C-alpha cells in the first residue's frame, strides 16, 4: 500500500468551509485512485452513476448514508459509547468538582452520530452533560439530526471542520472533545493541527479513538467487513482504515507537538491478553 492511499469516501464530496457543495468529477476520482495503485477502488468508483462525468450527488449521498449505517455495526460491536463514557468519567468528575454548570462533550467527525445519540439515550454521562456532534459532511449531519429528532434525544449535530478552532466549543474549560475513527483520515500535520486547535482554546481534555495498526487489526477488519458489510465501498475503506491508522508513537509525537502543556497517553489494551475490542484505543490528552 502506498502511504498516500486514500479511502473512497474521502473523495466523493467536495464541501467548502461555508457548507456549499461543489461537483465532483468521476474521472478525477478514478484517476486519483489509479495514481496510488488503488485499482480495485478505481473500478468501484467507475461504476457509480454520473451525468457528464459529474458524480450523481443524490446517489453519492444515499451511498454515504448506507456506508455509515454499515460502519455503525462496527462501532456498536466495539462498544464505543460505553468505552467513551468510561474514559471520560474521571475528567467529567474533575470538572464537576471544579464548579457548577453544564459540561459539554463534542464528538468531532461524528458521522451519523451513533455515539452521541447512544450517550444521549442512555444518560451514561449524566444529566448535566451537553452532547454535540460535528461533521465535515453535511449529508451525515442532516441524517444524524433526523435520527435524533426521531427519538427526541437531547443532543445536537452541526456542520464543521474538526481542524478549525472553536467549532461547537463555547466554554472551553468545561468542554471535552472526543472522536472515533477520524484520526486515520488525518496526516501527521493535521493530527498536530487537530490537537493544537483544541489546546489553543484550553479545552479540559480529549479522547480520540482510532484503530491500533497491526497485522491482527488488518486481518480482523477484513474478516469483519466481509461478514457484516455489503457495500464494496465499506469493505474497501474499512480495511484501508486499519492499514493506514497511525501507530501510538506517531499519535503521541503529534499530540506533544500540538499541545505541549497537556498530559498525553495512548491507552492500549493489555499486551499479553489482548481482547478483540482493543483493536481501537484512545489518544487521551488532559489539561493539568
Ligand atoms: C470513519 S468515519 C467515523 C464516523 C463516526 N465517528 C463513527 O464512529 O461512526 C470518519 C468521519 O470523520 C468525518 N471527518 C473527516 N475529516 C473531518 C474533519 N476535518 N472535520 C470533521 N469531520 C471530519 C467524516 O466526514 C466521517 O463522517
UniProtKB/TrEMBL annotation:
Classification via InterPro entries: Methyltransf_25, SAM-dependent_MTases_sf
Superkingdom assignment: Bacteria
All copies of domain Methyltransferase, residue ranges: 105-196
Species assigned in the record: Phycicoccus flavus
Keywords: Methyltransferase, Transferase
GO molecular function, one term: methyltransferase activity
GO BP term, example: methylation
Keyword presence, Nucleus: no
Record-given protein name: Methyltransferase domain-containing protein
Pfam families: Methyltransf_25
Ranges in a coiled coil: none
Amino acid at each position: 500500500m502506498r502511504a498516500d492511499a486514500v479511502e473512497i469516501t474521502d473523495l466523493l464530496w467536495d464541501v467548502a468551509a461555508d457548507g456549499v457543495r461543489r461537483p465532483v468529477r468521476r474521472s478525477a476520482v478514478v484517476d486519483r485512485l489509479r495514481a496510488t495503485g488503488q485499482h480495485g477502488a478505481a473500478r468501484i468508483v467507475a461504476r457509480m452513476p454520473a451525468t457528464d462525468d459529474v458524480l450523481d450527488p443524490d446517489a453519492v449521498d444515499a451511498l454515504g448514508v448506507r456506508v455509515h449505517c454499515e460502519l455503525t455495526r462496527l462501532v456498536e460491536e466495539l462498544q464505543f459509547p460505553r468505552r467513551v463514557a468510561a474514559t471520560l468519567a474521571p475528567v467529567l468528575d474533575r470538572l464537576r468538582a471544579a464548579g457548577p454548570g453544564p459540561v459539554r462533550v463534542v464528538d468531532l467527525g461524528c458521522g451519523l452520530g451513533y455515539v452521541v445519540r447512544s450517550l444521549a439515550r442512555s444518560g451514561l454521562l449524566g444529566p448535566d452533560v451537553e452532547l454535540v456532534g460535528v461533521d465535515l459532511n453535511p449529508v451525515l449531519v442532516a441524517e444524524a439530526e433526523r435520527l435524533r429528532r426521531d427519538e427526541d434525544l437531547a443532543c445536537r449535530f452541526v456542520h464543521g471542520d474538526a481542524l478549525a478552532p472553536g467549532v461547537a466549543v463555547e466554554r472551553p474549560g468545561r468542554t471535552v472533545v472526543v472522536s472515533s475513527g477520524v484520526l486515520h483520515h488525518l496526516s501527521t500535520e493535521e493530527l498536530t493541527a487537530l490537537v493544537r486547535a483544541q489546546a489553543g482554546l484550553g479545552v479540559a481534555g480529549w479522547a480520540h479513538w482510532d484503530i491500533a495498526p497491526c497485522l491482527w487489526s488488518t486481518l480482523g477488519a477484513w474478516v469483519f467487513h466481509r461478514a457484516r458489510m455489503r457495500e464494496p465501498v465499506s469493505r474497501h475503506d474499512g480495511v484501508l482504515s486499519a492499514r493506514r491508522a497511525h501507530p501510538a508513537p506517531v499519535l503521541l509525537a503529534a499530540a506533544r507537538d500540538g499541545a505541549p502543556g497537556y498530559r498525553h497517553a495512548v491507552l492500549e489494551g493489555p499486551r499479553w491478553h489482548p481482547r478483540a475490542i482493543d483493536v481501537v484505543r484512545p489518544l487521551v490528552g488532559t489539561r493539568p
